[in-house]
Amino acid sequence: MNILVLQHADIEHPGIFRKFLKEDGHSWYSCHLNNGDTIPSINNYDALWVLGGPMDTWEEEKYPWLIDEKKFIKEAVQEKGIPFLGLCLGHQLLSEALGSKCGPAKKSEIGVMNVQLTEDGKAGILFDGFPDEFKCLQWHGAEVQSLPLGSKCLARSRDCQIQAMSWGTRAYSMQFHVEVEGSTVEDWNSIETYSKALKLAMGEKGPEILKQACENEMEKFNQLAERLYINWLQTAAHT
Predict the structure, then answer these.
(1) Which of 99, 149, 174, 218 could form a disulfide with 164 if both were Cys (CB 3.0 to 4.6 A apart)?
(2) What's residue 24's pLDDT?
(3) Which of 96, 109, 143, 179 is catalytic?
């Protein structure tokens, strides 16, 4: 499989998924929209992944490429049925590409927090083998405010009702992060927007606190990431 990856920050890459892709012999190409890259034709790829980033979906004047990115996602997912995986901002962009809206969260989620699967999440493929409730990394101040027409909510948390969703049989996204590696917190803390939000939520020692919290859960994070990766490949094979 050859996967097109849309990135919005140089260091917010596929994380631990890179290891799994390499082990399985899959290839992937990152298009760095934040650096002015032009999105290539989806016809040259077998799947589309859209990752996180410090911008918000509605900041189209500041980041005009968001307009074309949403159109591209809509075409790939809705018109061509390309297998899709969206993480954090990618989750929000999928919702807007499919006609829904995002906005500021009533309460930001930053830290290692619990997520609960919905009945649709428990019954579906993507979270097969997951516990009904599990810990994950959260680092967001925006959220999907309503489900796009035809989509299903797969997971929720106390402060965010749409933590994961599906559309059709091959498009999946989640607000939370499972792609975490040992360097993730340190890397993302170097992004000014993320660092400010983290310290506002957890104090000046927030980076150290969050890094330790992730280290405490890293083995479980990586196990769940591998399971989700395997499950997603199964959904990609569906027609």
Answers:
(1) 174
(2) 97
(3) 179
pLDDT of residue 80: 96
**Is residue 179 among the annotated active site residues?**
yes
Q: Which amino acid is present at 26?
A: H
Query: Consecutive sets of 10 residues in the chain, 239 residues long: mean pLDDT of each?
Result: 97 98 97 97 97 97 97 97 98 97 95 98 97 98 96 97 96 97 97 96 96 98 98 89
Determine the pLDDT at residue 239: 59
Active site residue: 13, 177, 181, 214, which one? Answer: 177
154: left (phi over 0), alpha (psi -120 to 50) or beta: alpha
CB 48, CB 137: distance < 8 Å = no
Q: Could you tell me the two tokens for 238?
A: 């569906």
